[in-house]
């Protein structure tokens, strides 16, 4: 038990960088939009490049698994997969130097793409690793613990990168900043990636892998490869923006179609599965990850334009609000991680109230160091209180939590569209609170009962981080046509889909004799 806990803490360290970089994109997007004179749709290609890498990385993972005659991570082990992923990300940061020197938007996007490729492999290895360190029904709690560290990076990232680029908060700072100012922060990040790779290489992590023979079938490679070729073909024939819109429409049709198919299905346990795609929970999990990552990223990434249009702020002044969004993710995940420390029931209830406000205080302190006065963020404590009540109502049951939090996310998004001022702003930012614990719930439900196909299932779920590259660009297109505030109705629609997913996947798993909510009750909801 103690060894597993130390291994868990080691794995948590790499989570910090994933959100640090992702959240910092929210600072780069308005900067690049201004300096390169881009539309909101074009500026969102920052997210497209970064998150599309997860899809491409997962396709490459499957192709190389086929070439090697079996699942890569089953052969090299999770630990080595993390090390290689960190080194790939380090290489990506090196491109920021020539890209900034030549003021090349395309080269900057290429650097972010390679960083994302490394993250794809890191996440494919890390999350099944964490689930394997204890009972699968409490895997969501362990992933939440990693998520707590992940979003600490997301809270610090925007403030730190903003300080490194702008130096201060003022109209002059934004006007005087140049593309060359991104060089040093990202080169330092590359050095940190290399040091982390060395840290993992010498760590005492166990060599966990699945020893069962798992062949990568033609359909497992063929479907995503065909999808990729189709989308690239549309991009070449028309444009990247049309290809992104086409992908969104295609995914929407496929998601709704498979959801209906799953509702109509009456089969129980999957027999003689030929691939991970034989499991409906895996396919449903893929669609949910696509939508979840999309809504998480789109809320934060379009926030800069929202603040510019509704609050008259420039790119040097938005960091505390972007940080508050990603800090909201930290608030929720810190709350959900309490069970990992096995407190008594009475202490857990006390901590569930105290920890979110401690995390909120950290967000305020971090931002006060750069932004100065943060008193205008104090009313956001009301949103934190709503999240606490929702968490108590969920009783830490993965499906129940998913349903409550997605319902609240949809409601708050609609309030954000229908109102103005700080009520609208904080309602939209609170999407971070209600996204915060969805990933571990979806990931655990999507990989439940996959057995020897768990690694492939994880790769497919990581692949669908593609949603983070598609949905923000679609919102940017909606914003260019109808206005930035109205475009947040897309976020409400995403939360509604995830609510429906929770109902459907619960039914699918019960037909296979799996009920996560009951298992969590039996184990007392405690982490391992």
Automatic annotation (TrEMBL):
Q: Where are the transmembrane segments?
A: 12-32, 44-64, 76-97, 103-122, 143-166, 186-203, 215-236, 242-261, 282-301, 321-338, 350-371, 377-394, 401-418, 424-445, 457-475, 487-509
Matching entries from Pfam families are given as: MFS_1
Q: Kindly give the membrane topology term recorded for this protein.
A: Multi-pass membrane protein
Q: Domain Major facilitator superfamily (MFS) profile, which positions?
A: 1-208
Top-level taxon in the UniProt lineage: Bacteria
> Which keywords describe this protein according to UniProt?
Cell membrane, Membrane, Transmembrane, Transmembrane helix
Its GO CC terms are:
plasma membrane
Where would you find this protein in the cell? Cell inner membrane
Which PROSITE patterns does the record match to this protein? MFS
Q: Name one GO molecular function term.
A: transmembrane transporter activity
What protein does this entry describe?
A: MFS transporter
Q: Which organism is it from?
A: Emticicia aquatilis
């Amino acid at each position: 038990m103690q060894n597993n806990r130390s291994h868990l803490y080691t794995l948590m360290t790499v989570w910090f960088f994933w959100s640090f970089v992702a959240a910092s994109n929210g600072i780069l997007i308005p900067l690049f939009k201004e300096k390169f004179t881009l539309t909101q749709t074009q500026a969102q290609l920052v997210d497209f490049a970064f998150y599309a890498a997860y899809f491409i990385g997962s396709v490459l993972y499957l192709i190389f698994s086929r070439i090697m005659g079996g699942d890569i991570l089953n052969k090299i082990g999770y630990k080595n997969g993390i090390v290689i992923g960190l080194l790939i990300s380090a290489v990506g940061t090196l491109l920021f130097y020539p890209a900034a020197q030549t003021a090349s938007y395309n080269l900057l996007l290429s650097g972010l793409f390679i960083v994302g490729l490394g993250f794809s492999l890191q996440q494919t290895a890390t999350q099944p690793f964490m689930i394997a360190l204890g009972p699968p029904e409490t895997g969501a709690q362990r992933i939440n613990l990693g998520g707590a560290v992940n979003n600490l990076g997301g809270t610090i990232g925007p403030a730190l990168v903003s300080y490194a680029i702008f130096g201060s908060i003022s109209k002059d700072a934004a006007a005087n900043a140049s593309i060359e100012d991104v060089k040093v922060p990202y080169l330092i990040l590359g050095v940190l990636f290399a040091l982390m790779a060395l840290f993992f290489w010498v760590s005492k992590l166990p060599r966990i892998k699945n020893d069962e023979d798992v062949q990568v079938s033609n359909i497992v490679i063929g479907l995503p490869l065909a999808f990729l070729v189709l989308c690239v073909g549309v991009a070449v024939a028309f444009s990247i923006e049309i290809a992104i819109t086409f992908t969104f429409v295609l995914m929407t049709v496929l998601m709704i179609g498979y959801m209906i198919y799953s509702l109509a299905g009456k089969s129980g346990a999957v027999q003689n599965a030929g691939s991970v795609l034989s499991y409906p929970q895996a396919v449903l999990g893929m669609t949910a990850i696509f939508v979840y990552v999309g809504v998480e990223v789109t809320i934060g990434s379009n926030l800069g334009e929202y603040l510019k249009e509704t609050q008259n702020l420039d790119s040097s002044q938005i960091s505390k609000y972007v940080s508050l969004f990603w800090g909201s993710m930290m608030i929720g995940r810190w709350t959900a991680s309490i069970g990992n420390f096995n407190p008594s029931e009475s202490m857990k209830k006390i901590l569930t109230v105290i920890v979110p406000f401690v995390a909120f205080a950290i967000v305020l302190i971090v931002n006060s160091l750069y932004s100065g006065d943060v008193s205008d963020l104090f009313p956001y404590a009301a949103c934190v209180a709503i999240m606490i009540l929702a968490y108590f109502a969920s009783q830490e049951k993965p499906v129940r939590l998913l349903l409550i939090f997605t319902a609240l996310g949809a409601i708050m998004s609609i309030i954000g569209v229908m109102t103005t001022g700080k009520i609208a702003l904080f309602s939209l930012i609170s999407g971070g609170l209600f996204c915060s614990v969805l990933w571990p719930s979806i990931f655990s439900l999507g990989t439940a009962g996959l057995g020897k196909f768990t690694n492939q299932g994880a790769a497919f779920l990581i692949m669908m981080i593609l949603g983070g590259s598609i949905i923000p660009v679609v919102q940017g297109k909606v914003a260019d046509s109808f206005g930035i505030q109205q475009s947040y109705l897309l976020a409400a629609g995403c939360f509604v889909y995830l609510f429906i997913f929770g109902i459907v996947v619960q039914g699918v798993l019960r037909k296979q004799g799996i009920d996560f909510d009951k298992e969590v009750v039996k184990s007392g909801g405690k982490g391992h």
